[in-house]
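Narrative summary of target 7.
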Amino acid sequence: MFCTASLGTRIRARREKLGLKQVDLANALQVTPQAVSKWERGENAPDISVLVPLAKLFGLSTDSLLGYHETGDEALQATVLFTDIKGTSRRVHAMEPRQVVTWLNGLFFQLTEIVLQYDGIPVQYSGDSFLCFFSGEKHQSRAVRACIGTQTVLPDAVHMGLHSGTIHPCAIGHPDYSSPGIAIGDTTILAFRTSEWAGGNTRSGIAATDAVVEGVDDRAYIGGKQSVHFSGVDDEVDVYEIMDKAS
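Modeled conformation, tokenized:
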């Protein structure tokens, strides 16, 4: 037996250590924020079907999450989205610093709102780039729809790359100054490389790897396949342009 109050305390402590909000945790697990709040208050426990995804999100085993013993690090299956704003250098030259901040924040606000609509988890803003991930049920399809939604609201403003694989959410940096992030690995690197490729090789500005496409439930979004050799990646990667099916 385990104590729901103690489990709730562990969930809250781990969530806060990773820099996640209750709504981020809810989106990642495809549950309601109210459910997460009840877990953390010890009013009830996660459903058994949620325990494994929750443990993976936290980088714990289920035994460790339930308080039986501490153990190692487990990976989370997710789709990572890397977004880059087009023409930043040219625009920045013509702006005052305050104007640059206003412009970037306006774009990032709209982009983040769209990601949240599809239960994505915002991770990091860096310069003119934005990193987020989608996990849980149909994460590939939700990520693709978020990209299509972004191009509808912000036409020709960004290019985006998607790759699905294992990630390790964690706090990045010195403990006193750390922020939520994703440990750098193949999944994040391929999302970044795919975004770079999308910027110069697609009309839509969106590209996804085969690992994403194989999990998308609406093939109407998927364009033709190309095999690409990315810098720093040994094997060729199959990538697809993602297009609005209405276009």
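The mean pLDDT is 87.
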